[in-house]
Write a structure and sequence with these properties.
By secondary structure, the chain is α/β, with parallel strands linked by helices. It is 33% helix and 20% strand. Strands 7, 8, 9, 10, 11, 12, 14, 15, 16, 17, 18, 19 and 20 form a 13-stranded mixed sheet that branches. Strands 1-3-2 form a 3-stranded mixed sheet. A two-stranded parallel sheet has the order 4-6. It is globular, with a radius of gyration of 21 Å. The protein starts with 5 loop residues before the first helix and ends with a helix.
Length: 435
């Protein structure tokens, strides 16, 4: 059971070459239109000359019964513990065992130092942490290379090993908006990013170019590479989720450093809840405090304007947050009104609002396909507003036509010293690497 990422990695590392195992299928969830494909023979190996079918998760029960399946392996992230057990119940009722693989069983060992940036939920703020660490390494003459959690939504064989060092590389790979949100901000900072499907090959290529590898996790998944320093980012705006979502709780229990982000917008009670969770789950972890700072190019343009909020897609959808950087900027700089895109939603965006009713007036920057990008463009341009606030990390104006004035909004990382004046993010990671 997967979502086009962790499932493929688990197969590649543990099952592909195991003569005692025959993999009947992958099931797919979370991401639109990733089922109905085939994991190709070129990646699946000689034991699977026809590849492995990828089917919708709703077919799980029938799949198990029709194929006498003995075992179901759950292999995707950012789901509640309750959801995992519902999946287990489906498998058990269909006659199969239900299995969770330990992170240690699927982590690859690198020849270079590895710093892993993970989280307890989607949207905690991993990307600014990764970007901050890259800048710190570069300032000290250390060459970082980022390896991103997989996002293979297209031709899997073509995407086996991907290297991004320019916008042209992303264009050539036909990257979706969701991929660009993770790659573009790093490439713009001069950082090479690797991603893809076969992470043993990706590791070999990436470490050949690096002094240090940064694992940039997706959702709240555990690292694919064994980290020398493991950071987990926590979000006090969703206090308590750090102990109720899979595998975010695992990351919390494994990490060397717990980063409590968004201190500038959280209440003392929310922070206290997160601190108590860290103390209970991983009392040996170092705790760092951080602000998630909202930056916008022209704050004065927001004041009293009717603004349309376009936010990071995954953070709002399966991440469950009802707001993002655009809404934060609107509140901070005195927007007059928030435009409601729901009456003007086009095509697939109508279904997105139906599937995620918590979104309210926030428009997620969905772009898993060209059609969805066209629907996003049409929705933005049909919504009456004075200004579009783009809270997605990607340069959306390069991918669609925006007829109305727009501004980009970005989150950046900032250390918040604790009462004891402890070391910040870069100093802490460098110290631990030195050990």
């Amino acid at each position: 059971m997967g979502a086009a990422g962790r499932d493929f990695h688990n197969f590649n590392v543990l099952l592909r070459n195991d003569p005692a195992v025959h993999v009947v299928a992958f099931t797919a969830a979370q991401i639109p239109d990733i089922d109905g494909r085939c994991y190709p023979a070129a990646l699946a190996g000689p034991r699977y000359p026809d590849g492995v079918p990828i089917l919708a998760e709703r077919e799980l029960t029938t799949l198990c019964r029709d194929n006498d399946v003995h075992e179901v392996i759950f292999s995707y992230s950012d789901v509640s513990h309750e959801t995992v057990m519902h999946a287990a119940s489906l498998a058990l009722a269909a006659g199969a065992d239900f299995r969770l693989l330990s992170p240690a069983a699927t982590m690859l060992r690198a020849d270079k130092p590895v710093v892993a940036v993970t989280a307890v939920r989607t949207g905690c703020g991993k990307s600014p942490v990764t970007r901050q660490l890259c800048a710190a390494f570069l300032a000290r003459g250390i060459r970082p290379v980022v390896v991103r959690h997989p996002m293979p939504y297209g031709d899997l064989e073509r995407q086996a090993v991907q290297r991004f060092a320019s916008h042209a590389d992303m264009d050539a790979a036909d990257c979706t908006v969701e991929e660009r949100e993770e790659y573009e901000h790093l490439v713009d900072a001069g950082i090479t990013v690797f991603a893809g499907v076969d992470y043993a090959r990706i590791l070999a290529a990436a470490q050949a170019e690096a002094d240090v590898l940064l694992w940039d996790g997706g959702n709240n998944d555990t690292p694919f590479f064994r980290p020398d320093v493991h950071l987990t980012v926590l979000d006090p705006l969703r206090a308590g989720h750090e102990l109720t979502y899979h595998p975010g709780e695992t990351n919390l229990r494994m990490c060397h450093v717990a980063v409590i982000n968004k201190m500038d917008t959280a209440t003392p009670e929310q922070v206290a809840t997160v601190r108590a969770s860290i103390a209970a789950a991983n009392p040996a972890a170092r705790v760092l405090l951080a602000d998630s700072v909202v930056e916008v190019d022209d704050p004065a343009a927001i004041r009293r304007a009717r603004v349309l909020l376009v936010e990071d897609g995954p953070t709002l959808t399966h991440g469950g947050l009802p707001f993002g950087a655009a809404e934060a900027a609107a509140e901070m700089h005195g927007a007059g009104r928030i435009a409601d895109p729901r009456p003007y939603a086009q095509g697939s965006l109508k279904q997105v609002f139906e599937n995620y009713p918590h979104l309210g007036k926030a428009l997620p920057a969905m772009g898993y396909s060209r059609q969805q990008l066209d629907d996003l463009e049409a929705t933005i341009n049909a919504t009456p507003c004075d200004l579009v606030l783009l809270g997605t990390p990607v340069r959306l104006d390069r991918l669609i036509r925006i007829d109305r004035p727009w501004l980009r909004v970005r989150y950046t990382y900032r250390d918040r010293p604790d009462a004891e004046g402890g070391a910040g993010l870069a100093e802490t990671v460098l110290e631990l690497l030195g050990r």
